[in-house]
């Protein structure tokens, strides 16, 4: 993979020195990234729809497949888009709030699962392989040391702080996590990947996700808080009270998305926000997964409203709050699979769907070519 991004490509930052960049430099780079995100190319999307309307079928009878094909044409700025490479960007980080008992699972699972992803044996590896995609794993903030230490090269810090007591991280750390996520997306795109999906692992991360969704949508904590890895009723009530406290203690301002991420977010969530922004900047479609990636998407869309046009939804996670987040983004879910794993597993299921959508455009015959009678249908 090409890691030789030049300064210009990387929003004026030295891509090798994000860790030593000042807060002001990171802030400026984010501004460059955000302000470079354009609208879809509507004429390319319309031309794709014309192509599809010429195929031997009643108009729009392939529903969402047609929507996806037109969206990708608009994103890529051509009526004949091609997918050259696919990847799940899996961001791993720990969440200090787990000490409050907000997850049914112990914290060490984050690092243990990270090694499983690297070995290619987890749910996301299976489903990404099925979709012809690679999984690019990044330790953006696991709490414990990893072996070999090179695995920690992108780590911003050793887990977030407990959001029920104060901010998850400093503003500078949030900016670094966002821009690191953007950089990882940029490297993948430079290596030829032009379809991305968001994935994550981080025990406890449905807690900051619910906090973010509550802050960005205005819905109550109760409406957006779910059981995560499987909390029982009483523990769920406790999780809600912790999220309420986190919002009360930190007073996040929804008009300042970086501030919200730094106060009640997580490192893996911030990195996904950055990856989504970079995908939009580079005109690459990005498939969303469950509640955690949707929380990241809300922050990204708050920073750059047009970037929602580059998002392709996947499933409606069983986790409460996910659909509310998608609705706020103006996006409908596509799969109703009762999944609640995360990692990018729901998103990965969309790779074959996207391929199917573009194959319809490329391989299906037109009325003219097939000699089929046209009409008002
Ligand atoms: C073995 C295992 C593998 C996972 N892979 C993703 N998650 C998912 O569960 C976690 C979020 O749920 P909560 O907020 O309740 O901790 C995240 O790591 C998420 O990716 C997993 C969870 C477990 C236990
Ligand atoms: O919606 C998700 O992605 C999710 C739900 C529960 C636990 N982990 C992830």
TrEMBL record:
It is an enzyme of class 2 (transferase). It catalyses: 5,6-dimethylbenzimidazole + nicotinate beta-D-ribonucleotide = alpha-ribazole 5'-phosphate + nicotinate + H(+). Pathway: Nucleoside biosynthesis; alpha-ribazole biosynthesis; alpha-ribazole from 5,6-dimethylbenzimidazole: step 1/2. The active site is at 343 (proton acceptor). Its EC number is 2.4.2.21. GO terms for biological process: cobalamin biosynthetic process. The keyword Transmembrane helix does not apply. Keywords: Cobalamin biosynthesis, Glycosyltransferase, Transferase. It comes from the Bacteria. SUPFAM superfamilies: Nicotinate mononucleotide:5,6-dimethylbenzimidazole phosphoribosyltransferase (CobT) (SSF52733). The keyword Transferase applies. One of its GO terms (molecular function) is nicotinate-nucleotide-dimethylbenzimidazole phosphoribosyltransferase activity. InterPro entries: Nict_dMeBzImd_PRibTrfase, Nict_dMeBzImd_PRibTrfase_bact, Nict_dMeBzImd_PRibTrfase_N, Nict_dMeBzImd_PRibTrfase_sf. CDD domains: DMB-PRT_CobT (cd02439). Pfam families: DBI_PRT. PANTHER family: NICOTINATE-NUCLEOTIDE--DIMETHYLBENZIMIDAZOLE PHOSPHORIBOSYLTRANSFERASE. Catalyzes the synthesis of alpha-ribazole-5'-phosphate from nicotinate mononucleotide (NAMN) and 5,6-dimethylbenzimidazole (DMB). Belongs to the CobT family. This is Nicotinate-nucleotide--dimethylbenzimidazole phosphoribosyltransferase.
């Amino acid at each position: 993979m090409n890691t030789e991004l030049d300064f210009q490509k990387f929003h004026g930052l030295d891509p090798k020195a994000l860790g030593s960049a000042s807060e002001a430099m990171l802030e400026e780079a984010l501004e460059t990234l955000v302000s470079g995100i354009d609208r879809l190319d509507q004429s390319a999307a319309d031309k794709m729809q014309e192509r599809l309307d010429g195929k031997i079928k009643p108009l729009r009878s392939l529903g969402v497949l047609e929507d996806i094909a037109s969206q990708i044409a608009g994103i890529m700025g051509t009526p004949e888009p091609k997918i050259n490479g696919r990847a799940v960007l899996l961001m791993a980080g720990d969440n200090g709030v787990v000490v409050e008992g907000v997850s049914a699972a112990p914290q060490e699972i984050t690092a243990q699962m990270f090694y499983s992803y690297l070995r290619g044996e987890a749910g996301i590896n299976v489903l990404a392989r099925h979709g012809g995609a690679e999984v690019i794993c990044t330790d953006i903030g696991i709490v414990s040391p990893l072996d070999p230490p090179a695995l920690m090269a992108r780590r911003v810090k050793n887990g977030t702080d407990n959001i029920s007591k104060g901010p998850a991280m400093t503003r500078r750390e949030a900016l670094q996590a966002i821009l690191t996520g953007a950089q990882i997306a940029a490297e993948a795109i430079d290596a030829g990947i032009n379809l991305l999906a968001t994935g994550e692992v981080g025990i406890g991360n449905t807690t900051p996700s619910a906090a973010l969704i509550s802050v960005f949508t205005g819905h109550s904590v109760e409406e957006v808080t779910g059981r995560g890895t499987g909390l029982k009723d009483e523990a769920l009530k406790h999780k809600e009270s912790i999220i309420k406290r986190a919002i009360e203690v930190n007073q996040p301002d929804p008009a300042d998305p970086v501030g919200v991420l730094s106060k009640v977010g997580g490192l893996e969530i911030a990195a996904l926000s950055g990856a989504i922004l970079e995908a939009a900047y580079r005109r690459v479609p990005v498939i969303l997964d469950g509640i955690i990636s949707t929380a990241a998407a809300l922050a990204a869309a708050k920073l750059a409203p047009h970037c929602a046009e580059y998002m392709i939804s996947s499933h409606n996670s069983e986790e409460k709050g996910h659909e509310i987040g998608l609705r706020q983004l103006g996006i409908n879910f596509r799969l109703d699979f009762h999944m609640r794993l995360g990692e990018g597993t729901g998103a990965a299921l969309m790779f074959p769907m996207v391929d199917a959508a573009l194959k319809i455009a490329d391989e299906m015959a037109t009325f003219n070519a097939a000699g089929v009678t046209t009409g008002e249908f």
